[in-house]
Design goal:
370 residues, alpha/beta, Rossmann fold, 2 domains, 6-stranded parallel sheet, 31% helix
């Protein structure tokens, strides 16, 4: 018997749905920073649920750390995409779980989709209605992505390849709901904010680490930043468990008596971010969360995501967000850097002007004195 690609990937053209179908599955396969930004648009998509229907948000397992932002009415369903790709029992079990849920509507919110991962799960749902954007062009997988268009009952043309993510999601949500709403600013509704911790009002928070080491500014620059901060402030250096071990050059940042390290969860960190006098961060989830919580935030960014993530589009950028990056002819590479690293950093990161950073910090602390 001839075995076609859909069968090998677990696709079944002849599978029948179990009735009745109910519930909305929203697939959002981005990382932690994407989850912060997506949470701003998510309430618009939840309105597509019928009365009494459960809304379920499928996210990567690591992204589930941001589930406290998704709202009490949204069920978070984490998936380990590495296990999905490499462990057949896990893959079959997860697909079966989705099929048993009998979702009425599946919404893929990802412009960048993987035909053998998230689209594999979308197919497993076998929902009567399934909607998505046309996928970002991807040379390696274009043929499969084109073939997988048959998974969807409707597809939306969301705009050019380079477009601010929040604006793209807004256009998609408007198309689905029939509304004509402007994109939301990068600001979480007050009701979602964690409780304020008033004991930390003279705190400056540093977030120097990234999951992509080339996006990190040097330990030397962070030492200079520490030396610039006025006395009388408590300094919290934050990162994920293991970040200091992976970056031993940064251990010296903790030598000062007023500096502590915090590797707690994002939900635990959020109250500290909300009341910090200043947050200084690389382009990472902590930075997006800080901005969304209203904290005065300075981001030391690469130029890799210009016109897609950072800097934010002018129409959504709040006044508490300040971005420093080095413009490059090759900017907007989306992390596919064509240059050799400079001292372990992307060239656009290595060339950030320390003097510009220091002047900006002094100006921001002057504006936020008290």
């Amino acid at each position: 018997m001839k075995t076609g690609l859909p069968f090998l990937l677990g696709f079944s053209r002849w599978s029948r749905r179990r009735e009745p179908s109910s519930g909305v599955l929203i697939v959002a396969s981005g990382g932690l920073g994407d989850a912060v930004l997506f949470s701003l648009v998510l309430p618009r998509l939840t309105r597509l649920a019928n009365d009494g229907e459960q809304v379920t948000l499928l996210v990567p397992a690591s992204t589930a750390k941001m589930s406290f932002l998704f709202g009490p009415g949204v069920e978070t369903l984490p998936v380990d995409y590495n296990r999905l790709a490499n462990e057949r029992p896990y893959r079959f079990e997860f697909k079966a779980k989705l099929k048993e849920r009998c979702f009425r509507l599946v919404i893929s919110t990802d412009y960048l989709r993987h035909p053998k991962r998230d689209e594999l799960l979308i197919k497993a749902c076998n929902a009567p209605e399934c909607v998505a954007m046309y996928a970002r062009p991807w040379t390696k997988y274009d043929r499969l992505l084109d073939k997988n268009r048959r998974l969807y009952t409707r597809l939306f043309e969301s705009g050019p390849p380079l477009l601010d993510k929040v604006i793209r999601w807004t256009l998609f949500a408007n198309w689905l709901t029939g509304e004509d709403l402007p994109p939301p600013p990068i600001r979480l509704p007050g009701a979602q904010w964690p409780a304020e911790n008033t004991a930390l009002r003279s705190t400056v928070i540093l977030a120097p680490f990234s999951a992509v080491p080339e996006k990190q500014s040097s330990a030397k620059l962070w030492e200079t930043i520490l030396e610039t901060l006025p006395p009388g402030h408590d300094i919290i250096v934050t990162g994920a468990p293991g970040d200091l071990t992976k970056n031993p050059a940064f251990q010296a940042l903790l030598a000062r008596s007023n500096v502590t390290y915090d590797d707690s969860s994002f939900e635990s960190l959020a109250p500290h971010l909300r009341v910090a006098k200043l947050v200084i961060s690389v382009d990472t989830a902590t930075m997006h969360l800080s901005v969304a919580l209203g904290a005065l935030t300075l981001c030391l960014a690469s130029a890799a995501y210009v016109n897609e993530i950072v800097p934010y589009a002018p129409e959504i950028s709040p006044p508490n967000a300040h971005i420093i990056y080095t413009p490059m002819d090759c900017q907007s590479c989306l992390g596919q850097c064509v240059h050799a690293a400079e001292n372990g950093m992307y060239p656009c990161v290595a060339r950030i002007n320390p003097g510009q950073v220091i002047r900006k910090i002094r100006a921001l602390l002057g504006e936020n004195a008290g």
